[in-house]
Amino acid sequence: MTPAEFGKIRRPRPVARAGRALAALFAGAAALAVTAAPANADPGLPASGTLTWSIKPAVQPVEVVEFEPHQLERGVNAVWADTDATVPAGSTTAVEVRGLTAEGTWTEWAPITADEFAVLPRSTQSVQTRLLVTRSHDGASPEVREIDLTAWQTS
């Protein structure tokens, strides 16, 4: 297909579906369906059908707090967090860390769970922490008083 021919293709306009898609964001579950090609599609969709789905998440307000990077006196690649917080039912807190590489880029965020410390892919002397707080459906929010961090180099 040449660029000139490409410009002549008419496609169904997704405008009518946009409102439904937005409304689906606030409803509550996910569904997956296989449907046949719409009769008015131009060009026609593959005869095998298309996949369509609706995403209806239970939307919860989330707050993300990124703290300033902390400079350490030596390289580390493991970090543990002890969080002092009151977490109402249905709400959550999560702590993640990342390290600044020698090249000046950040590693991916690594989660710290109640059972496991974060392991960074490389040793670093600069660790940044972020806190993710999710309110419950009724609006109750965790109260985080302090996060104590401990870092070391694994063997």
Secondary structure blueprint with pairings:
Layout: H1 3-7, H2 15-24, E1 30-35, E2 50-55, E3 62-66, E4 70-86, E5 92-99, E6 110-112, E7 118-134, E8 143-152
Percent helix, as a range, is: under 10%
Taking all Cα atoms into account, the compactness measure Rg is: 24 Å
The secondary-structure class comes to: mainly beta
Largest sheet: 6 strands, antiparallel
Number of helices: 2
Domains, number: 2
Round the mean pLDDT to the nearest integer and report it. Answer: 75
| Element pattern in H and E | HHEEEEEEEE
Query: Which stretches are low in confidence, meaning pLDDT under 50 for 5 or more residues running?
Result: 1-35
Counting DSSP E segments of at least 2 residues, the number of strands comes to 8
